[in-house]
Amino acid sequence: MPRCPNCNYELTFLEKRHKYKCAKCSSLFTEEEIKLKEFNKFNKTERAKGKKQERKKLNKKFRKDNPNYSSIYYQKNKEKSNKVSKKYYGKHREETLKEKAEEYKDKQQSKKEMIEKIIIKCMQILPTFVLA
Ligand SMILES: [Zn+2]
């Protein structure tokens, strides 16, 4: 299910009105609005992913072509690289941890959604067994 653009709460689809409603902030959204938002979000994350992968690939190729580069560079700039990596870690530590937490949350969420789907399926099937 898509999420509310205002408060990120799960939206429910009102079939009669063909609109999405947020139970938390009670905003209403048209199907098109949500589809467009989801599409834009998808595009944005895909683009970011692509950039990251591209950078990683270039980096990998460079390292492959220059296998001694990092050790030579490190020997030459020991103090500087230590400082830089410490600074980088300090700067991006929270970001990295946040990314990890986010990934974990997404995983848990999709697990939850899968279980919910299974429960719904079971509840649909169950009455036929009981009646039979
Ligand atoms: Zn909302």
How would you describe what is shown here?
This protein is mostly helical. The protein has a domain at about 1-50. The protein is about 75% helix and about 10% strand. The protein is built from three helices and three strands, in the order βββααα. Strand 2 and strand 3 form a beta hairpin. The longest helix has about 55 residues, at about 80-130. Zinc ion binds near residues 6 and 24.
Show the helix and strand layout.
Blueprint: E1 11-14, E2 19-22, E3 28-30, H1 31-65, H2 69-76, H3 78-131
Bound molecules: zinc ion.
Zinc ion is lined by residues 4, 6-7, 9, 22, 24-25, 27.
Question: Characteristics of this structure?
Answer:
132 residues; mainly alpha; three-stranded antiparallel β-sheet; 3 strands; 73% helix; binds zinc ion
